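Hey, resending since the last one bounced:
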Amino acid sequence: MFMTGRSRLAAARGVWRDRSGLALIEFAYALPLLLTIGLAGTEAANLALVTLRINQLAMLAADNAARVRISMDEGDVNEVMVGMRFAGSGIKFGERGRVIVSDIEPNGLIGTNGGQKITWQRCFGAKNAVSAYGAQGTGATGPALRYGVAPAGPATTEEAGTTPVDNGALIVAEVRYTYVPLVASMFMGNRELRAVQTFPVRDRASQTLTNTSGLTDAAKRLCDAAHLSAD
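The structure tokens again:
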């Protein structure tokens, strides 16, 4: 079809004025930015939810261990840790986390050596982490835990420390967890989350950890490198 110069000019003006695909083009340009913002928001929301779960798991461990009455047995510890495994299965806590449960009571010493001690300590999880308050036996012969415990470690002042009541004990549950990004590491890399919860022991006459069930060392929830397990 032959077009005159005037018809060619009119066709060019029609193309220039056509806006039928403009919204689609604008959306295509904005899509990478919108997608990035959406993924970043999803990642931030997931991190907040996992942080909440970690705090809840620490509370669960401390509360359950503190509720056991009369005496604490290795079998009771196993039940607490099995509960942690199931409660944390949604975030793969067994594979990525570690819970350290410590029983703290007065060391019975006087003077400058007086303070608290870790009577027993048990752990669960495959993450290699140690307690910020020390291993089992810490404070038994000296003032390592003179003022009790604080969120970041042993308290340095009496006002900052949490201690058990007279003739009682305190359960401290520390949770460490490696957060793996949900979407991609472009927004944030792996990071360690930490939570600490304390509960007073209720109606327990003896703080000694018994083993009436006869568990072997391999079956106990010890806190050494040989017991890094997700089961």
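The chain has one domain: 20-227.

Sorry for the duplicate.
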